[in-house]
Amino acid sequence: MKLRDTLFLSRANLKGNRHSNLGVVVIALLCISLTVISLLAFTLSKEINEYKDDFRARTIEAYPYNRVFDEKTLEKISEINHVESIDIEDELRVQFFHIENIYDENGTYEEVQNLINEKDTLISAWSLIGKEKRQVIAGKRLDETPEFSCIIPHLFYPFDEDVYETSGLDYIDGESLIGKTITLNEGSEGFNIDFFDGNEAKRVNIPSFQVKLNIVGVYYASVTADGNPSLIYISEDTGKKLLKMAVEHSVRGDDELTDFMNKPEFHNIHITVDDFDNLSEVYNELKQMNIYVVDGTELGINPSTPVISTFFNILSVIITLSTFIISLILILQSSKNVIDNKKVEIGMMKAVGYKNKDIFCLVALEQIIMTLRGFIIGIGISAIVVTIINLINYNSSYANRIYIINYADYLVFTFVALAVVVLVPLICEIMFLRKIINIQPREAMN
User: Fold this and answer.
1) What are the Cα distances from residue 367, in Å, to 19, 21, 333, 349, 392?
2) Phi and psi of 256, rounded to 5°?
3) What is the DSSP string of 7-39?
4) How far is CA 136 from the centre of its chain?
5) Is 87 strand, coil or helix?
6) pLDDT digit string (tens) for 28-40?
7) Which of 42, 7, 39, 34 is nearest to 374 (CA)?
8) What's the pTM?
9) Is 143 helix (H, G, I), strand (E, B) or coil?
């Protein structure tokens, strides 16, 4: 039988199938579930997994509050199960800066400079520590560049605003700033260096000083990991140089700060755990050793995010399985009805020379057409929903960008949905293949 003839007969038979409209609706719901709810669950899970893999999400910071970190103490910490590495903090680890200007050999970058002059700027500079690495999506990594270089987020917003609450921010394209120099200072108030000497907390006031950094690369700043629009990274060596500069600018070479610099046992330490899921175990061990640790790792996450992710995962499984089972039952029932109600037609077709494979193709194509109609409707609705979700969250606060769906992931889930809606009817027809074979030409006489 020619494909054109098979298609014509399948469409004609489908019009008389009273289950076809219900089947189309259920298949459409299945496709929407797979490409919207399941995709949202996948998007959130991917973000959370990226967060768990981040170096800073696995790093515990400890202070020499009631005991110094001498070699004996460090050795005991290293013997704790799941401790991967211990790094002594001897760099300017985290510091807030204001921006004076951004320029290159052609002068200041007018477009950004105008914004800097209009708004209060505030960025946080993080120095890498130990084995920490930061991948870039454009430009060079910090380990490929000289000191006093930095990488910035792909969405750059160096202004003193709460990006996690404010909507409609006009982000600066980070890639447009590669190759330029950013000049920073701490403002007229200067800044403080806090440390412990094993007994009590100390604070040294540092007058403001100027720092110039070359922008060499751009990293992808995700909502749960890697940073935020106002966070830049510098290398560990640059962080060490900045701390020395701070000491040099301290009032008359403050004796306490100089003493602190020469005693690594008074420095904070960063304990990296091999896996995020082992953090609580290491925390408990450290507290039993009477070591003062910061509650929570350097990289935080909104507590509601894992809850929302779990909700979507459960909802996705329930709805997808329910609609899949219902659609499977409907297609099975539809296929059974087609065969039972058309024994005469099938017998007649066999009597005039149609083979079993021709009849199988006819019945299978009828079900595939029904499911493809549902697929087209479902994918059309899901495409509209995904577009709306992305438009809303692109223009919402930075925190809501976690719900932005990657269109490449959407295409993958669309192909999965297509595979499901094509394979399900084929499997159903294969289950009834024996019934088709058993129908004899004499059925045409009934």
Assistant:
1) 10, 12, 11, 19, 37
2) -65, -40
3) HHHHHHHHHT-TTHHHHHHHHHHHHHIIIIIHH
4) 16
5) strand
6) 888 888 888 888 8
7) 34
8) 0.76
9) helix
